[in-house]
Amino acid sequence: MATIRLGQIRHAYGSGRTTEEVLFGIDQVFEGGQAYALLGPSGCGKTTLLNILSGLLRPTAGVVTIDDKDVTLLPPEQRNIAQVFQFPIVYENMSVYNNLAFPLRARKYSHAAMKQAIDRIAEVLDLTDLLSYKAGKLSAQYKQIVSLGRGLVRADVNAILLDEALTAVDPYEKWLFRRKLKQIHKQYPHVMIYVTHDQSEALTFADKVIVMNEGLVLQTDAPELLFEKPATKFVGYFIGSPGMNFLPVRREGVKLSLMNNHLCSLPAKISKVGGQAQAASRIDLKHIKNWELGIRPEYITLDLKPNKTTRNALRSANFKVKVMNVTQLGSTNIVKVIFAGHELLIKVTEATRLAETVYIGFPPDKICIYGDGVLIA
Amino acid sequence: MKFKKRYILLILYLLFLLMPIYWLMNMSFKTNEEILGQFSLFPETFVWDNYITIFTDASWYSGYINSLIYVVLNTIISLSVALPAAYAFSRYEFLGGNHLFFWLLSNRMAPPAVFLLPFLNFYSSIGIFDTHLAVALAHTLFNVPLSVWILEGFMSGIPKEIDESASIDGYSFPKFFVKLFLPLIAPGIGVTAFFCFMFSWVELLLARTLTTVNAKPISAVMTRTVSAAGMDWGLLAAAGVLTIVPGILVIWFVRNYIAKGFSLGRV
Amino acid sequence: MNKTKNQKAWLLVLPVFALVAFSAIIPLMTVVNYSVQDIFGIDDRVFVGKEWYQEILRDEVLHGAFKRQLIFSALVLLIEIPLGIAVALSLPRRGFGSSLAITLVAIPLLVPWNVVGTVWQVFARTDIGLGGSLLLSFGIDYNYTSNPFDAWITVLIMDIWHWTSLVVLLCFARLQSIPNVYYQAARIDGASLWSIFRFIQLPKMKEVLLLAVLLRFIDSFLIYTEPFVLTGGGPGNATTFLSQYLTQLAVGQFDLGPAAAFSIIYFLIILLFSWLFFTALTSQQEEKLEKTREN
After folding, report:
1. Same domain flag for B126 and B199
2. Which DSSP symbol is given to B2?
3. pLDDT at A279
4. Maximal CA-CA distance, chain A
5. Interface residue of A13, A18, A47, A56 to substitute, partner C, most C CBs within 10 Å
6. How many CB pairs lie under 8 A apart between chains A and C?
7. Which tens digit of pLDDT belongs to each residue from B234-265?
8. pLDDT band (50, 70, 90) for residue C157
9. Which residue ranges in chain B fall short of pLDDT 50?
10. How far apart are CA A238 and CA A197, in angstroms?
């Protein structure tokens, strides 16, 4: 069970005047046996980070360790990390068998060990019938399975990195594929890192999801936490469909309120907040300028009549709002309303009855508070 | 700056390529007496006379102009017939299409020496003997097949969806081809033009046989340096150097296309 | 790429065929015509059937030239293709160095063929040439104008000088188009430089190498101008290749009939060899396989 650590990894491409910085100090721990999904918009540095892990790139600054051994300067072949790329890479004029044998031959496996490893992986990936075919003749999808096999064939790898590896695979196969990956992962508890820009894929596949943006890791958490408590406004927007709603709130001393309704009280000093970006700092409330409330479209309550039974206006559907439009998404509808001059999106079931004006409420346990874009409570 | 071992081979190769060229240049700046009289790595008396002769004598410089005219003409003809054909090869499957390329290339396999007399007869009979067009047409013999192959390679790299979406957007085929498709394969056209230019510029046998006066190419003019007084080495060298210049200009223009890389299509 | 079956595509190919008919088939027919007739004048010709073919096949000089030609073309391919690949691999990949190297490497290709002969004539001569006099000063007894072996070697080296760059440029352009991710995958797999060459670069260069082999074979088999300028086919017949002998027959002695018969045979030989290369290098491409899942 290998543990991989990244310490203050920075990276810039080019040199001199044309330098372009893409990673701005990444601290991250990857534990063996865990499946990580690396999620973020394109250009956020995911692939760069992956290439630094595998050794294809040498970071401009920072340290990579595998089981406390510094491997920052080691080339990929000495790190024992497998990587599968978005674009299927096979050695076209070799048979599938020889393709799978290629990384093993380079590492001087014995003939018997090689055969055993290949048979095992061929069986898992359903390639047994194809072993004698020329890899160049396979369809793109099977080529990608073969390149995945080349990564997985080494049972002793510390980590397997998948860089949007399933893009070329059709949806049904994708699903089978992810299941196979999990199955293999259970047998061989290496670190599995799965880069994707498809969040549903990330959220269903991974034990932990790492959200990146603009060269920084914003949050590393289990999928549910990522959804419930996004560490920054960006994560809130990015995860979920549609993303989180945000509303400005007013602070008086330690009290926060929305439309004169008391939200919560804050301690004078906040220490732990979610996500890596602020992990080290203690934040003084006085320095925060913008306070916001974040709530998922799924959690806003919606009713046709005001609910007078509870006092807390927030808890029950008590704000009267105008419905702007409704978008139908199969079993759910997205309702756009205007609340105090701000657009809010609400996700309701198909069966929910709607009118021109409705009453909405914000369950307090579902509310996240953000100070200057960062989760406070 | 780290020096890579692989550059040793490159440097040796370049040295091998450039030494004879250097020697030609060296000679072109010498007088005949110096060339024949003493051995020197640099011209002892540096003279421009050989070049001045070429640039002032119409029978010399018209040779360059004639060569350039038929080379350009050939490049245009080759490209304009090869472009639609290459498109057909890259997009459609049709009877005989698979081996057609080979049969096209077989044009190149006929010994030019054999074609001399038939060409001469044929071109005389249709009245284009001793014109730039005659040479340009004769050179299509080997340039068209090559152009088709190179262009086909570039075109196969352009996704077919582009053609389809253009036709959905209401582009007629000619408009699509000229407005959308050609710009996409500009690098291919550049590389093809380079090869057409190259093979037409360097050919002597056909060019010399099909012309007498009006379209006489530079390579034929160069044989004039042999006279009763013996070889005029300096003049020959200068003329030789000047034939290399247009080529260097052309390669300088297409070097980026080559550096970006291309893959030739199917075999 | 999936191709549409469409016989209308012939329309697009038509201009090429018209041109080929104009510049190749009509002259070729004329040659076939010559080869079976004895021509005394424009309106005075006799059908002689296969007589010229029999005569040309018995010609001793031709046999010698044919043997020389085969050895020459074989050596040209054996040296220029590997050397070209090696130089292509050693070219800088990007930046100004790359541009400069490409331009310098391409120079010999853009020199008119008679000038190539001239360049080597003035370079290899022992009295006024740099190369020739260098060899003499090293104590090597070299004279390409009188020693047949030296002449032969000089023509070969001239061809290497002239044409290796074609192989270099074709291979280099292809190498440049290999996506970087192939090299990354190979590094992850722990592949050696040799494996990268053998299993990534070489297979990807297959098409350009086929083109290079075909072009180099055809052009070297037809070589005429350069040795004509350099050695005039001599000393003796040492550097008389097929084209030269053919030109002597057709233009020098005006033996049109035998010359035409000769060129038909010549053409067929090149066609045969090219076809062999072509099929050898493309044979594995035939079967196509797309495994589909049965459910």
Report:
1. yes
2. P
3. 42
4. 77
5. A56
6. 69
7. 888 888 898 888 888 888 888 888 887 776 65
8. very high
9. 1-2, 267
10. 10
State pLDDT tens for residues C173-217. Answer: 889 888 888 998 998 888 888 989 988 899 888 888 988 998 899
Residue B118: φ, ψ to 5° = -55, -45
Task: Name the one residue in this structure whose structure tokens are 């590389």.
Answer: B191
Give the count of domains, chain B.
2
Note whether B25 and B117 are same-domain residues: no
Average pLDDT over residues A162-191: 80
Q: Does C191 touch chain B (CB under 8 A)?
A: no
DSSP states of C14-48: HHHHHHHIIIIIHHHHHHHHHHTEEEEETTEEEE-
Structural domain of B11: 1-47
The mean-pLDDT minimum among A224-238, A263-277, C209-223 falls in A263-277
Residue keyed to tokens 């509303």: A247
User: According to the model, what pLDDT value does residue C289 have?
Assistant: 37
Closest CA to B80 of B196, B251, B201, B199: B196
> Measuring CA to CA, how many Å separate C206 from each of B40, B263, C60, C290?
46, 10, 39, 22
CATH of C63-288, one of 1.10.730.10, 3.40.50.1370, 1.10.3720.10, 3.40.50.11890: 1.10.3720.10
- What's the predicted TM-score (pTM) here? 0.82
Residues 6 or more apart whose CB falls under 8 angstroms from that of A343 comprise: A324, A336, A337
B chain contacts of residue C111, beta-carbon cutoff 8 Å: 202, 240, 243-244, 247
Chain C residue numbers touching A125 (CB-CB < 8 A) = none
Q: Which of C87, C103, C178 sits opposite B251 (nearest CB)?
A: C103
Q: Please indicate whether, in this complex, the C-beta atoms of C200 and A91 are within 8 angstroms of each other.
A: yes
Q: Which residues pair with A212 in a beta bridge?
A: A217
CATH number at residue B132: 1.10.3720.10
